[in-house]
Specification:
By secondary structure, the protein is of the alpha+beta class. The protein is 39% helix and 15% strand. Strand 2 and strand 3 (140-148) form a beta hairpin. The longest helix is centred in the N-terminal third of the chain and has 51 residues, at 10-60. InterPro entries: N_methyl_site, Pilus_4_PilV.
């Protein structure tokens, strides 16, 4: 009669370790994909916020609507008269000063200058953003926000109009958000 054996053999332990390592590698890769997807989603949410922000600013200052048209990269308006009205403050700005202040704040925001790291680097905003605003004679407004995505895919403007394609640098990582609206004066 053969003696009864208890425990695992070395081969069984090695096979178990290989299966465990393959599973852990899969979980790690899944984590990386999820982080990239989360960042892409965050960037799209930020772009949506910035587009809606400038549209609301244009609605408030509709007397200068036509002058908001242009391409913005964060360096268009280098300084502007502060037109923020604090509680109890008394700031009188012309419509043109208000437009310049709107664009100045907007550009600073999508560059991420409102959020700084401990070493004073911009950490908010979009990666390599470009914004384009087009306004036609009927006050139909098209706002395009482009930025650089994390992963390569097709160009975000491949099947769009020439105006949209012309906003930002063409790339397989370019993402684009386009909002069309009408502003009643």
């Amino acid at each position: 009669m053969s003696p009864k054996r208890n425990g695992f053999s070395l081969i069984e332990v090695m096979v178990s370790l290989v299966i465990l390592v393959i599973g852990l590698i899969g979980i790690f890769n899944l984590h990386l994909v999820a982080k990239k997807g989360s960042f892409e989603s965050f960037q799209q949410t930020q772009a949506s916020y910035y587009v809606n922000d400038i549209i609301n600013r244009m609605r408030i200052n509709s007397g200068q609507l036509a002058t908001y048209a242009g391409t913005y990269t964060g360096t268009t308006i280098t300084s502007a008269t502060s037109c923020d009205v604090a509680v109890g403050g008394n700031v009188n700005c012309t419509n043109i000063e208000t437009r310049n202040w709107d664009l100045y704040q907007w550009e600073r925001a999508f560059l991420g200058e409102n959020e700084k790291s401990s070493d004073n680097k911009n950490v908010g905003g979009l990666d390599s953003p470009t914004a384009c605003i087009d306004i036609d004679a009927s006050n139909n407004v098209t706002v395009v926000m482009t930025w650089k995505g994390v992963r390569s895919s097709s160009d975000g403007t491949a099947d769009k109009s020439a105006f949209i394609k012309g906003c930002g640098s063409s790339s397989d990582r370019r993402r684009a958000l386009v909002v069309n609206t009408a502003i009643i004066i």
